[in-house]
Write a structure and sequence with these properties.
This protein is of the alpha+beta class and 503 residues long. It contains 17 helices and 14 strands. The strands form four sheets. Strands 2-1-10-11-7-6 form a six-stranded mixed β-sheet, with no helix packed on it. Strands 5-8-9-12 form a four-stranded mixed β-sheet. A two-stranded antiparallel ribbon has the order 3-4. The protein is globular, with a radius of gyration of 24 Å. It starts with 5 loop residues before the first helix and ends with a helix. Bound molecules: iron/sulfur cluster.
């Protein structure tokens, strides 16, 4: 049995000896107890608990043919469209249990990306990367490790390519190659959950050309390594976690992002999965981004459910739940939430097979999913604020409710209808505030897995406009050479599908 419990995971990340982790300028020794990071660690832990809890056990586990054993699904290489749909369902359920981003999916998507890319490279004769990756995958699965995926570079001036940057380390690069491995320097930005992980899987962030060879690098490294510094980013309401309360900060689950600095970090050769093959970087980025964009259809729909539930409850607390405008808003929120989820499920069930046992999401549906997610959470939050009322931005603190001199007044004037207390209202207001306006639902939804412009580029590239035009010309009775394609969709193949076919 290789599936760890949440407690075993916590024990494994308690003591770090080499990595330096900073929160608000101060070094953190134990991420499992630090008030800023603990909620994030607990959200990460939920991915381990999912493999044991009755209602998520089936979704949370999978069978690995690589080690011939049952594993945690978060380290699984998808074997079918149903596996991909199980991912979206699991993510929706875990959002219900955390109300946050649980952070483990980026590492999972990185594993699946490397499985596809090392197979496609093997088809071109570069078999060593796949051999190394399979050994690494077995190690991860056998030990049920907590992975981060580290892709986004610091990037410097966005108009310049990696080799043109005045800061040579604006993108993570290979500084030195020895017979045993490589030394890398640079920084990866916005790395989800990284301080709560045991391993980082590092991927290039953009398509590269021949002059960028040193930047075309993929590898894995233990998070607790010499030369790595993690600077954890600030978030809305973060200092509330340091107050020690149990209402305002929603201190049980949250997520974090970190700036990860690699200062001449050694990576043994057996952990290097791409080294200089710039010609595969555009497909690698395409594969990873589509995987993560599909996942958003699950986790963000799950957060939508939390917000819908909180909105309905707050409406009940002040007696307006049956008002037609409230019903109308809840209906709209349901529509927006289920649209995101439907797209994520479509991206899964219409998956494409790009090599033996390589199931990739449908790239069109995955990009559309993420584009919906870039738009809809803001609308859902706006509707929820509309239902909840101005109290979302003006409620007294829990310390007012707990002050003996004020308690009675806050209790009296915050209460809505009989049967609900002021504390009931404050707790629900804080839940709604922290989830609907938090990083996971507002910022990640727009910029995670690539900004909206990146998805628009992808789905205009994948859509065959000329084919659609020929269809219209034929129906309008105009001359056309139209030959109907076998499929219903006017789509072109992605770069990855072309590479898989050898074209
Ligand atoms: Fe997982 Fe969603 Fe967080 Fe990405 S944003 S790591 S898919 S929970």
């Amino acid at each position: 049995m290789t599936i760890r419990t949440g407690e075993q995971y916590l024990d494994s990340i308690r003591n770090r000896s080499k990595v330096e982790i900073y929160v608000m300028g101060k070094e953190v020794k134990d991420v499992t107890t630090h008030p800023f990071l603990k909620p994030s660690v607990m959200a990460f832990k939920s991915t381990f608990d999912a493999a044991w809890e009755e209602d998520t056990k089936d979704l949370g586990r999978a069978w690995s043919p690589f080690i011939n054993d049952e594993i945690n699904r978060f380290n699984h290489v998808h074997r079918s469209p149903d596996d991909l749909a199980a991912k979206v369902k699991l993510l929706r359920k875990l959002s219900h249990k955390t109300g946050a981003c649980f952070q483990r999916c980026v590492g999972w998507d990185s594993l699946n990306t490397l499985w596809i890319m090392t197979n496609l490279m093997a088809q071109k004769g570069k078999t060593e990367y796949r051999d190394r990756f399979v050994e690494y995958l077995k190690y991860v699965q056998k030990n049920d490790l907590a992975l981060a995926g580290a892709m986004t570079d610091a990037k410097g001036a966005r108009t310049l390519k990696p080799h043109q940057q005045p800061n040579k380390n604006a993108y993570v690069r290979i500084e030195e190659v020895t017979k045993d491995g490589i030394y890398v320097s640079g920084a990866k930005a916005n790395i989800t959950g990284v301080a709560a992980t045991e391993e980082m899987v590092v991927l290039p962030t953009r398509a590269m050309g021949p002059e960028d060879k040193d930047y075309a690098v993929a590898f894995s490294v233990p998070t607790d390594s010499e030369g790595i510094k993690i600077i954890v980013g600030r978030q809305l309401n973060d200092a509330r976690r340091l107050e020690g309360g149990d209402i305002d900060a929603l201190p049980y689950f949250y997520n974090h992002e970190g700036l990860v600095i690699f200062d001449h970090v050694f990576v043994p050769m057996e952990r290097v999965f791409l080294m200089g093959e710039y010609e595969f970087t555009s497909q690698l980025v395409e594969v990873f981004s589509a995987y993560h964009r599909q996942g958003y259809g699950g986790c963000k729909a799950g957060l939508g459910d939390v917000i819908i539930g909180a909105s309905q409850n707050l409406a009940k607390q002040i007696g307006v739940e049956k008002a037609s405008h409230v019903q109308e808003k809840l209906t709209e929120m349901i529509f927006l939430t289920e649209t995101m989820y439907s797209a994520g499920i479509a991206a899964s069930l219409n998956a494409v097979k790009v090599c033996d046992n390589c199931w990739w999401v449908n790239p069109m549906h995955a990009n559309v999913t993420k584009h919906l997610v870039a738009r809809f959470p803001a609308q859902i939050s706006q509707l929820s604020i509309d239902i909840a009322g101005g109290i979302i931005g003006t409620a007294p603190s829990e310390w007012d409710l707990k002050n003996p001199k004020l308690k009675e007044y806050v209790a009296k004037y915050l209460q809505g209808i009989e049967g609900y207390t002021a504390e009931d209202r404050l707790r629900m207001v804080r839940l709604l505030e922290n989830v609907s306006l938090g990083v996971a639902f507002q910022i990640e939804s727009v910029h995670g897995a690539g900004s909206p412009a990146a998805q628009r580029i992808m789905f205009t590239r994948l859509y065959d406009l000329n084919y659609a035009e020929e269809i219209a010309k034929k129906l309008a009775g105009k001359k056309t050479d139209l030959k109907f394609k076998p499929g219903a969709e006017p789509w072109r193949e992605s770069e990855t599908q072309k590479l898989a076919k050898g074209s």
